[in-house]
Amino acid sequence: MINLMWVAIGGAIGAMARYGMGLWLINLSKLFPFATLIVNITGSFLLALLFAWQVQQEGANQQLWLLLGVGVLGAFTTFSTFSLDVVLMAQQGEWLKALVYALLNTFGCIAAVLFALWLKS
Q: Which residues cross the membrane (predicted)?
């Protein structure tokens, strides 16, 4: 139960940060979805840093990972998790699996959005 609390607290912080970024960059986002792009790149960078610093260390603090990695960055952007998954597969020599995963996520999500919009019309 305590683990859920860490995720929930982090999730609230990450969701507010994501919303705040959208408000902060609202004028730029009229030209191009810069807020989403910046959130995805920043979140991916921060998750990789956290992973390298925290998870790969012996005696890693699970609560810190749940708060920051799963909660804050998970709510800030799930794209960061996707990006880390792809890189970890590639680092393990599973290049084909990483490519298929990346393509399925990218085109599968776009197809899902198109299908949902088609259903609504």
A: 6-26, 31-53, 65-87, 99-119
| Mean pLDDT within 58-72 | 89
DSSP string across 88-99: HHHHTT-HHHHH
User: What residues contact 66, with CB distance under 8 A and at least 6 apart?
Assistant: 3, 6, 7, 10
Domain boundaries, the chain: 4-120
Which long-range contacts link 53-59 to residues 24+ away (Cβ below 8 Å)? none
d(CA 50, CA 111): 31
74 is known to lie in a ligand binding site: yes
pTM attached to this predicted model: 0.76
HSE, CB side, 13 Å, CA atoms: give it for residue 117: 6
